[in-house]
Amino acid sequence: LEDLPDGELTITPNPGTEGFSLMLNGALRNGRLFVLDALGRAVGSAPIRQGQARFDAQELPLGVYVYRANDADGRLRATGRWVKE
């Protein structure tokens, strides 16, 4: 996994309550955002279009989640944590 340089990926708000927005400032313009729970189970996904995605987490329980941003070819380009409180 190649980490994206600082400033290329922004998740807001983190922590959050209803969901989050992903903003990418670089090569990854289109792809898919996947969200996993603490046990590694997929809990949802959202399209990345023009470097942005919005994930609605209103139905998810409180906790720590992992997000994965894949490019249009399915390659993992970024990963990180998001906290629902």
What spatial form do the alpha-carbon principal axes imply? globular
Beta-strand percentage?
over 45%
**SSE order, one letter for each helix or strand:** EEEEEEE
Number of helices: 0
Q: Please bin the fraction of helical residues.
A: under 10%
- Tell me about the biggest sheet? 4 strands, antiparallel
Structural class: mainly beta
Rg, rounded, reads 12 Å
Main-sheet strand order equals 4-3-6-7
Strand elements, count: 7
Low-confidence blocks of residues: none
Span of the ends, CA to CA = 28 Å
Report on the structure:
By secondary structure, the protein is an all-beta fold. It contains no helices and seven strands. A four-stranded antiparallel beta sheet has the order 4-3-6-7, with no helix packed on it. β6 (63-71) and β7 form a beta hairpin.
Concise synopsis of the structure shown:
The protein has 85 residues and is an all-beta fold. The chain has no helices and seven strands. 0% of the residues lie in helices and 54% in strands.
